[in-house]
Design a protein that fits this description.
Layout (H helix, E strand, L loop, with lengths): L11 H14 L4 E8 L7 E4 L2 E5 L5 E7 L13 E9 L2 E4 L2 E5 L1
Antiparallel strand pairs: 1-4, 2-3, 3-7, 4-5, 5-6
Length: 103
Amino acid sequence: MLDMYYMEGVDEFTRDSIKRSFERNFEKTVVGTEIVDFPEDGLTEYEMNGVRYKINLKPEKELIIHFAEETDGEGGIHQSSMSLPLGEYEGHCYIATAAKVSD
């Protein structure tokens, strides 16, 4: 599963987080996928707990995975889709991943 992700520069914490997220999301029913152009204002870097992260490949496309909607029993609806940035490295397409830029 992690072979789909480009892992250059990705720390162990982020690797574990990706694995947990993947396992949690794919317990859901996938109802469709689509690949679209990466939005011009798409998220390519962020800061969390004082650490800055940046996507480790130039995102060219975005994989959108649609899940069957589920409710939480209190009227709330769980995530119905997720978006993953796609980039190319040495002629292969990978899911781009956040890598630590600064501590």
